[in-house]
Design brief:
The protein is mainly α. It has a domain of 241 residues: Rossmann fold. 41% of the residues lie in helices and 9% in strands. The chain contains 15 helices and eight strands. Helix 2 crosses helix 3 and helix 9 crosses helix 12. The chain starts with 5 loop residues before the first helix and ends with a strand. It is an enzyme of class 3 (hydrolase). This is Flap endonuclease 1. Its main location: nucleus. Its EC number is 3.1.-.-.
Length: 398
Amino acid sequence: MGIKGLTKLLADNAPKAMKEQKFESYFGRKIAIDASMSIYQFLIVVGRIGTETLTNEAGEVTSHLQGMFTRTIRLLEAGMKPVYVFDGKPPELKKQELAKRYTKRADATDDLAAAIEAGDKEGIEKYSKRTVKVTQQHNEDCKKLLRLMGVPVIEVYSVASEDMDSLTFGAPRFLRHLMDPSSRKVPVMEFEVAKILEELNLTMEQFIDLCILCGCDYCDSIRGIGAQTALKLIRQHGSIESIIENVNKERYQIPEGWPYQEARRLFKEPLVVSDDEQLEMKWTAPDEEGLITFLVNENGFNNDRVTKAIEKIKAAKNKSSQGRLESFFKPVANTSTAPKRKGSKCVIGTPRPANKSRFSVQVCIQSKPKVSGSLALPALDLGAKHSLPISRALSFGF
């Protein structure tokens, strides 16, 4: 679920913290992807017509494999370096939310049976999707596929995804719509948590309290308090404790035994992974024989299509190894005095004639350079030795 109403709240109150990006603009970037969310989307969309889904000869569903295979190839062809992150054991606080989801699936199963009996095609389409659940077998299938493709996988508690609570966990940059099909032609939406805090004029602690008030997966919210009201109250009182102390109790009823403090602690101190083996990430060449065996022999994929797809993966891996353009240019001190021009403070030096095969580019910074360094996943306690550079960028201020 994420955080209720947070996207619209940010669009209305912190628009500068959101920006649309072209899919191709993430060439060379390491991107952490919520595997479970992606698998769920594949199971709902790929090859599904009513209750019918893609299956192999044994009748086992393969929609998740088809979706993961084709979508990952698209990322690789765009020069990205995807890292798929799978859910670990959910925290105790999420058990209530998971129980609600279980009940909703059970209700949807009953509604689906009624729709099938009545021949209601629209109802069948609607309720069949609500019965979908990502199983451990789906996860294991996709892990195997990704490893055969040479794409790393890790298992942690939380990661940037379609769920807005990635921002609450402190992900410096958060992308939505990256895994949407190309046919939708939807730009990637990038959120930057530092700009969110600046635009909303909140501290990170206050932003976490705001998200809890909006509604999250780990505790109930206060009935009658939506996103806009939550923002107003946080700005006025500064914390949930102060809100509880000053709010009109007759108008806003505080849930009995409300575990907001535990939810806050979970957002600030999430479960982490420190196993070096799980943190080792390498993008390797695809296992051609393994992919043919797994997809064609075991799951009934078309041999020619898989073979062509493997060639795409190999070509994409070579492409992504080229690196981003800015990695070839390093700012160096400009010791010479450049002629001043009105309205211009930047001088790009030309290559010096030399016998060396390489040349350097001198750049005079317009103002203080803005450098965004390693962006670590919020749930990965990697330490300085194992920092995870999700994306690296050097802004020269041109």
